[in-house]
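Narrative of accomplishments. A recurring question from our advisory board has been how the design workflow behaves on a single, concrete structure rather than in aggregate. To address it, we present the structure tokens for one chain from the evaluation set, followed by the sequence designed for it. No filtering or post-editing was applied between the two.
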């Protein structure tokens, strides 16, 4: 019988309550962090670091609050539950693969705008823009990590326990799409919303195929850094990151996305669909290594009696007398060497008559 101190599964309704409380805590953390960053930047003149400070404060409050919530609910509160970033073998390679994939995805999204001649590029480089460039990279790294912890970390774990991983992926992908937009996109609402949902599904696939946030974090960070900082284009309508390239788009909104960036272009939708297939193929080894359930022995020992015919054959073989064994001589029975010939002797003398 199972031991009485074994961990009991958390009821579905309780999982859903934890999901709701965790989501509310994220909104509260974001609000508190924004106000704190605004006050500190105004007090000490750190206006250029306001976004980075807000992101760091949000990440800190989020992790501490979710760990406390999980400890109250389950007496666990481990960091691996809140932010599944295991330092396992090859975790740096996972992050690097995600970064390379996000880089390539950003190039594929911007490439149609470049090939059609609708991308106008202006270079602006000085010490101030270089400092803003580094600040923007750090801000995106913290912001994308926070997004992964919120949508693919603790909240996804609890919602999966409540309604199942498939429905949790679909629901949180839709919520993630609304989160990325956060603005009235006017005529570009449909493509922008569709691309945001597909991008969310892509990140959820990265997590579910590896059971870690390394791949998805690298993908999310690289995609946004390349589009916003390398090409200087808006991300879902946001153009708040500084870059050494000040780009603008012209022509059809279906190709360029207009003022909302390539995420609002119709051509980005099939690109995201192809990216889902490619990522699924790239993560086959990770899925084989990390997602297959471990077979654990359990239950009671069961001894199955052999068939009656098999038992009768064993008894017959045991009752039969052992066969006679003939032991042959081990020494050869023939001469191995012929004797030497007899020496020549003269014939005997004749006998007298």
């Amino acid at each position: 019988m199972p031991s009485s101190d074994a961990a009991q599964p958390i009821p579905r309704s309780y999982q859903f309550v934890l999901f709701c409380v965790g989501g509310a805590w994220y909104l509260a953390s974001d609000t508190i962090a924004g106000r704190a960053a605004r006050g500190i930047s105004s007090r000490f003149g750190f206006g250029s670091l306001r976004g980075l400070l807000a992101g760091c404060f949000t990440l800190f409050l989020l992790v501490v609050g979710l760990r406390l919530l999980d400890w109250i609910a389950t007496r666990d509160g481990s960091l691996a539950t809140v932010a599944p970033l295991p330092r396992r073998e090859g975790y740096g390679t996972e992050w690097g693969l995600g970064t390379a994939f996000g880089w390539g995805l950003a190039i594929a999204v911007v490439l149609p705008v470049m090939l059609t001649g609708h991308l106008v590029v202006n270079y602006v480089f000085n010490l101030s823009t270089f400092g803003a460039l580094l600040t923007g990279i750090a801000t995106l790294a913290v912001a994308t990590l926070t997004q992964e912890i919120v949508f693919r970390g603790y909240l996804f774990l609890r919602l999966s326990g409540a309604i199942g991983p498939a429905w949790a992926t679909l629901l949180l992908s839709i919520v993630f799409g609304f989160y990325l937009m956060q603005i009235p996109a006017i005529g570009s609402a449909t493509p922008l919303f569709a691309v945001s949902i597909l991008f969310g599904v892509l990140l959820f696939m990265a997590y579910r195929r590896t059971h870690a946030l390394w791949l998805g974090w690298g993908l999310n960070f690289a995609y946004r850094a390349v589009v916003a900082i390398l090409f200087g284009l808006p991300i879902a309508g946001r153009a708040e990151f500084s870059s050494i390239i000040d780009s603008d788009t012209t022509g059809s909104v279906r190709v360029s996305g207009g003022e909302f960036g390539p995420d609002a272009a119709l051509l980005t939708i099939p690109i995201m669909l192809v990216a889902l297939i490619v990522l699924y193929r790239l993560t086959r080894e990770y899925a084989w290594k990390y997602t297959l359930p471990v077979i654990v022995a359990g239950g009671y020992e069961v001894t199955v009696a052999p068939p009656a015919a098999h038992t009768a054959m064993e008894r017959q073989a045991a009752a039969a007398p052992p066969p006679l064994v003939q032991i042959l001589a081990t020494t050869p029975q023939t001469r191995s060497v012929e004797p030497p010939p007899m020496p020549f002797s003269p014939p005997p003398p004749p006998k007298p008559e």
